Structures are given as C-alpha cells and as structure tokens.
Predict the structure.
Amino acid sequence: MSRRRFQYDHANDPQFAEFKSEAGPSIPHSKLYTLWYETALVQELWSQGRTVKDARKLIGIVLLAHIRTPRQAHERTRALIAAWCRRRLPEIDLSEWLAKVFEPAIEAITPKFQKAVGNRNDRRRGRNRRLFQRRIKRGRPIAKDGLRARIAKHIKAEGQSSCLALAQSLALSPRTVESALTRMKADGQVVTLSRGVYVLPEPTEPPKLAKAHQRQIRENQALLEPPFEANIKAAEVREIGRNEAKAIIEKYEWLGSMPGFIVRCFGIFFDGVCGGVAIYSGMSLSQRLIRHRRSETQSLRRSVHITVCGHLFLDLSFC
C-alpha cells in the first residue's frame, strides 16, 4: 500500500497566500503548491532574487515544473515571471524586459524542456506496457472497446462522419475526438474524404511474399522430374572443376555468370548428384599490383544453394 503524501498547511500560510494572489488565476493551485513547498530555491528567489541570473533560474524551475502540461508551460511561466518582475523589479519596463531576458532564456531552456517531456512520455509508455503485459499474463481480458475502436465502429456504421458528429454520438468533447482522429489518421486507420469528414480506408490485399530465384527454379524442375530424398549427414563436399561449377551457376544463380578470376570451386554431393556449388574468387594480377601493400584476401563471389529433394533446402556457409 502506497504511503500517503505529506500535506503542508497552506491554508494558514500567509506567504503562500501572497504568492498565490500575485501569481494570478492562470496557474492552478496544484502547480503553485508544488513550486512553493516542494521545489528548491523558489521561496528564496521569489523573496530575495533581483538579478538576471536569479530570473533565469526561476524561469528554468517554473518551466520544468510544467512537463505534464507542455502546451500551457510557456504562458504560465510568462505569467509567473511577470508577477515576479512586478514584485522585485518595479522600476523596469516589463514588456522590454520580457523581450530581452525572458524570451532568450526560454529558447535556451526549450531543448532541456523537450527532453524532459520525452523522458516523461517514455516512462509513461513503459509503465503502460508493463501493466498490459502483466494483465495478459494474469489472464485478464483486454478491453477492446477503446476510443479508437468506438470511433471506427461508428464510422463503419454511418459510412462517414465528422468530428462533431462523433463527439455528440460518443458523448465526448470534440477536442478528445479530434486528437484520436489525428492519431488514427497518422496510423492509417482513417482517411479524410473531404475537409472534416472521415471514412475508413478501403481494405487492401496483403502483399505476396517473394520467392527466392533458386526456389522458383526448383519448383519448376519438380514439375518435370520427381525429386529424390537427400540426407545432409551423408553429403560429401569436394573440389570440382570450373566447367562443372559453371553449369550449376549459369542455371541456378541469379546473375547467371561466372566471376572473372576464380581461385577454387567446391561442390556438395548427395549420392553423386551435385546439390550446390561455391566459387572463391581472389584478386587478379593487375589488382595485386595496385594493392601490393595489402594482404591477399579471398572472398566468396558466387554460390548456389539448390534443393535436391522436395522438402530440403541447403544453406551452405564457407569461411
């Protein structure tokens, strides 16, 4: 069981009452309470701060305290800093001071603020993901009547709908429905028929998986002649000649051509039948003259893995 949060006696605190009255009604009581009692340096800066450095500290503290409400963070911070200026710097021109000090400070702190908002969102998504996985593990049913599902169900029944019509039928605020529609549109769950009118996208056929070139040839060969059983444990790998490897490469390999400079050729055999070849190619004489300072390297340039039976693929790896 979670421990109850300690509550300060803010009702009988004249300093907090003065702070709240000077901040104005634009900032909610919960934010002012957190800033005054649970945030370091706010009481000191509010009562004693006078320099630009103190103002920048206060701007950063107030802005980062609004990571849960990033849309209202700028205007609430501006209102609180304006109240601080009227309290501590009554002789200055407020509009000019805000333009020269407040706006540059906000621009400097914005990357840190955005990073804090992103970290908060990551923690929230991770917590929701863990709760979802825990719910699945415990066998509890997952709700399938979420807002997106209800919106899609309504649009499917009506054929098309607008944000206001959805808000009225679902008994929700238009802003909530509009936010959900924006996310659904980004995910491809709805499309706009015209301005403000949403419909479901037309169903599309799933893309067909492409087959490998060697598999297509194997299936065509299987129609002409029946495949035979092959045992990979009884296979034999041995060196073969260039002409024998060329016949397999030109028939089954995608490029259908041999490399220009061949070092060695190998093949895998099943009861005397070649089931795949691998060709190693190195540098030619001209390449060796150009790169004589480098160590000689050999690379696998052409290889074919074909199937000699109806249910077996050969995947050979040479080092």
Summary: The longest strand covers residues 273-281.
